Amino acid sequence: MPIEYVHYVYSDNSWEIWKAVDMLGFQQGASSPGIHETSSHIERSNETILGGTQTVLDAAGLPGCFWPLPSGYFRHILNIKVVEGDSAWNKRNKRGEVEGKQILFGCVVEFIPNKTNTKWKRRNKWSLNAVPGIFMGYELLPGHTWSNEFYVVAIEDL
Q1: What is the pLDDT of residues 122-141, one digit of tens each?
Q2: Do the beta carbons of residue 136 and residue 115 sit within 8 Å?
Q3: β-strands 145-154, 9-11 pairing
Q4: Residue 12 CB: number of other CB atoms within 10 A?
């Protein structure tokens, strides 16, 4: 993985961010409080993520309390989306496009549950191994790498 350098950090006037950036020794600047035009790029990104998360929740037919999972899902899909022959994910990781299925959030899937969970150990031996569930996103590791694992909720648990 290539080494990346930070030349400048631009944020709001949050003391937590200011202190962390100062401790790391980076140059920094801050937006003017109450003037959204000074933070237009991040505001636009936030609106994109908010609108995308709402759309994903609506399409899945789930209530707003589920927002953290579709938000992560939407950001991941946006990151791996190929635009003009390349994706943001590949530009950062230089390993080609993400392999694996792109599954719609909230769709019904069949999955084999983790047998270490007591609930799944007690199942009748004549029961099928696969259980119906709802796809809830991708397990991502630090650096936005995919662990080849998914988040799925068994329908019977809902």
Answers
A1: 667 777 778 899 999 998 88
A2: no
A3: unpaired
A4: 13
Task: Give the pLDDT band (50/70/90) at residue 4.
Answer: low
Ranges of beta strands (E only) in the chain are 9-11, 28-30, 108-111, 131-141, 145-154
8 A C-beta contact, residue 5 and residue 12? no
**What's phi and psi for 22, nearest 5 deg?**
-65, -45
Contacts of 83 by beta carbon, 8 Å cutoff, 6+ apart: none
Q: Indicate the SS3 state at residue 58.
A: helix
Structural contact between residues 90 and 146, judged by C-beta atoms closer than 8 angstroms: no
Residue found by looking up tokens 């991040």 in the block: 42
Q: Report the SS3 class of residue 42.
A: helix
